[in-house]
């Protein structure tokens, strides 16, 4: 299948390993991945901070860039949610019904990674190998806006060598919320503290999720406290194989965390 | 149809300043910061919200058609709001026919004036009250006290708040921020005739309140209530409660005055079937609330012989005028959104400033007062969406929050000659992101900043909020875009 990658501005700029893993995974499964170069940002930050007029340009760009593709994938529940649930609203608010209609169509063809794998490609065992103790945080937008359900967990359970540990109070927000983490930094930190407490309670070495943004938040806290737990995007776990050694392991690395490269997926 | 000649009467009025409790004294982040530091508050709220969540989740799980009920509740409310003027006139006619008197109050000040005047006319100087959000909203207790009338709250939690000279912090459980030790202390300090040997067990505390309230119920001739629902076709008012204090207030006194927000009207008796299933399960986690009291006007020889209904606008018509925001009027005050909100759970209700806290407060208060008078509230959410899932009438709170943020930005833009720093940054970011060449250059610049030395600590405000507790990611040596280009297979496009 020919699949267009909507990389998201965050993964493109700060977390390219998650995006590269998405490409490698889909190519390993026998699909063709294309990267429309005109893409930049879906505009979610603008919409969620109140800047809809500015977001309108980005919605228009996104729709124009992705309109030619039948299947679009993004390694982000949040950006998938924005494209599917916000773009048409932004267009409609600006009185552009035609754009709203087109945005709706692009939205319907846009899948979060776990949705694409399970629903469109019909696969739960992607042949991955990842010998680590892992806990999964269902990000709010993947859980409640996109509704990925247990798809990520089904994918993780099929990964060889992976020990999956259930995260207590998993459905509670980590406190990121985009500019919320800056505008309401104290409340955000209080939420993060509880999320980290639950992650640490699992005894996991890796906390994974389907959104680089939430992982940046959780990982930033775990790194600051030198907890010895790292965050890795779901795509990187699914892209790791026994022989391929594809996942660049430190995942969401942080400036304060100068640990060397960890698991490479290769056998010693 | 002939084209009607219309006179534009202006936008509907907002809730006025200087009366009532819809505006806080400081922005949410400042108030929240103080609340977060109160460890007793954090513990009390964490325990209470987790308990209610579990209880409510269990009884909702028993209802196979919960989602259909939610959809029905949402549809009934939307239909009622679509013909609100007609339903209110129908309600007025039905209540009047049944021997009641209907008063129309455009705002808090007018409602307080009407109620104070009605109490004065009875010659009484004390009233008993059933817990009511509408009377909290308009600051009725203060208005009564100013007129020399003593209001006595009869809901246990509301009584705790009143005796503690405190403010409610939850719609349903106003004293949720207090634990039993604190309540015992308040009773010992402020409850008339309390036993000095009062112990801190819940049963002993409830017993003390019961003894105090029972005397008051029997000696007071005027009661003031709110209403959960008003049935337009029959003129019937309904109050649901758990303690029986409502039943006492609604049946014992000679005069009953009910203050009701105009959005509480529902078309028919049959519609109650939907809401009486939704409300208790979503709010207290009960299959059925212990007391459902309904009355229609005056029944000779039975119950209050004088009944007044005050219909309160106080900004509600302005909410109705907003196509996206008007959903907030569907709220049945169950507080399910508060109990599941990760922000509310950590800050409590006082931080929101308004009597309507939590997610529903964050969308209702700014609409009633005008967004600029509560501009920080739409941002008091991580947009996690738990409130939308929990709402028994499916109010899309996250979408309203996002909409109100846009209204705030638009109002700022109109008011200011010079854009805010945030607005300038957002505009610049959008411009760059709409030009892929500039975007790639900006990415490269971010990458180069790696060389500028150790990062991730001590960013300047407003970003310092992030680095106070979190490390920043280190920009990678290569963006995805660069990596892909080197692979040589980009789909070229404008």
UniProtKB/TrEMBL annotation, chain A:
Residues 246-268 are annotated as: Disordered. GO terms for cellular component: cytosol. Residues 246-256 have a biased composition (Low complexity). This is Glycolate oxidase. The lineage of its organism: Bacteria, Bacillati, Actinomycetota, Actinomycetes, Streptosporangiales. It holds the Pfam family CCG. Residues 3-83, 134-218 form the Cysteine-rich domain. GO terms for molecular function: oxidoreductase activity. InterPro entries: Cys_rich_dom. It comes from the Bacteria.
Automatic annotation (TrEMBL), chain B:
One of its GO terms (biological process) is lactate metabolic process. Residues 88-298 form the LUD domain. Residues 416-488 form the Lactate utilization protein B C-terminal domain. One of its GO terms (molecular function) is metal ion binding. Pfam families: Fer4_8 (PF13183), LUD_dom (PF02589), LutB_C (PF11870). This is Iron-sulfur cluster-binding protein. Residues 328-395 form the 4Fe-4S ferredoxin-type domain. The keyword Cell membrane does not apply. Residues 482-494 have a biased composition (Basic and acidic residues). InterPro entries: 4Fe4S_Fe-S-bd (IPR017896), 4Fe4S_Fe_S_CS (IPR017900), FTHF_cligase-like_sf (IPR024185), Helical_ferredxn (IPR009051), LUD_dom (IPR003741), LutB/LldF (IPR004452), LutB_C (IPR024569), NagB/RpiA_transferase-like (IPR037171). It comes from the Bacteria. Keywords: 4Fe-4S, Electron transport, Iron, Iron-sulfur, Metal-binding, Repeat, Transport. Residues 453-494 are annotated as: Disordered.
